[in-house]
Design goal:
By secondary structure, the protein is α/β, with parallel strands linked by helices. Helices cover 39% and strands 19% of the residues.
Length: 297
């Protein structure tokens, strides 16, 4: 009788211990935040840039119904951008806590390989990264790159290939520090370790539009979506033409490093992909991307 009571007590103790461990595991999972990393780059900044107020500009009329926003100049920069917006919206819906960290390029790749982050943003699908991380089927954004030219110079032709541009000795504007695909460099190879004579380096897209209108270059390459907003802002949408043929495109993904140890990772990825698909189908992803492009990101 005594032995049976002892056995029942032992079984009860084991059950209590198991339940305690499960509770502890769930509590840790709730406390742990998904770590999102992204590289800050000039072409797609993840830090909010607060533009300085022009002292000569007339004061803006404030909406009396809109609450006054107090900006702390000493506050750390806010992490923003279309990628951040899309991913955090999904995680908020799934009620998963997260944190976003901006890292340098030399830090980004090792963190992905070693699983020191749970999600990485703005990654192109390459064989190198496919070895170390899972890529969802749907990219966060796609950029289509086309030639831009003065409308007065295009004539009746609405497409232009690399070969045609080179054959006509047209000078092409490119952005300093931006990476271009191998097919671009096949057509504009370095000449004695110097930049090809048909290439001109500009600071950014706005600089290239200015050089185009000054006729210092004949063309420039840029993604169609970003320049659409830019040309509207500076009143150049009528004077600058975007050729219809896409020279190349780039898809940018959020990826899940294989060595990430976040609890229930596989389940979260499945849930995340479903929500990503819903955002794509509802056009919410397009709306978010266009909103941030218009803001200059």
């Amino acid at each position: 009788m005594l032995a049976r009571k002892f056995l029942n007590l032992k079984k009860s103790s084991i059950v209590i211990i198991i339940l305690f461990l499960i509770f502890q595991k769930n509590s840790c999972a709730e406390d742990k935040k998904i770590k999102i990393i992204a590289e800050e780059v000039d072409m797609h900044s993840f830090f909010e840039v607060i533009k300085p107020v022009d002292p000569k500009a007339p004061p803006k009329k404030e909406d009396p119904k809109k609450p006054v926003e107090i900006v702390d100049p000493n506050a750390p920069p806010k992490v923003v951008g279309s990628d951040v917006d899309i991913v955090t919206k999904i995680l908020q819906k799934l009620k998963i806590p997260y944190e976003v960290q901006i890292v340098k390029w030399k830090e980004l790749e090792p963190m992905i390989k070693e699983g020191k982050a749970d999600i990485a943003l703005g990654i192109q699908k390459t064989e190198k990264y496919k070895k170390y991380a899972y890529f969802p089927r749907i990219p966060l954004r796609t950029r289509n790159y086309v030639f831009h030219r003065l409308t007065s110079e295009i004539g009746n032709k609405e497409t232009l290939s690399y070969e045609e541009a080179v054959g006509q000795n047209l000078t092409v504007g490119i952005v300093v520090g931006f990476t271009y695909p191998s097919e671009f460099w096949d057509n504009y190879p370095y000449e004695k370790l110097q930049l090809n004579r048909l290439l001109y380096e500009g600071r950014d897209y706005k600089d290239l539009v200015i050089k185009l209108r000054q006729k210092k270059i004949d063309l420039f390459i840029a993604d169609r979506e970003r320049t659409t907003m830019l040309l509207k802002k500076i009143g150049a949408e009528e004077s600058v033409f975007k050729y219809r043929n896409v020279l190349y495109w780039r898809d940018y993904y959020c990826i899940f490093p294989n060595k990430s140890t976040f609890p229930d990772k596989d389940k979260i990825i499945q849930q995340f992909e479903r929500e990503l698909y819903k955002m794509k189908e509802s056009d919410l992803m397009t709306i978010i991307n266009e909103m941030w492009i218009e803001k200059g990101y």
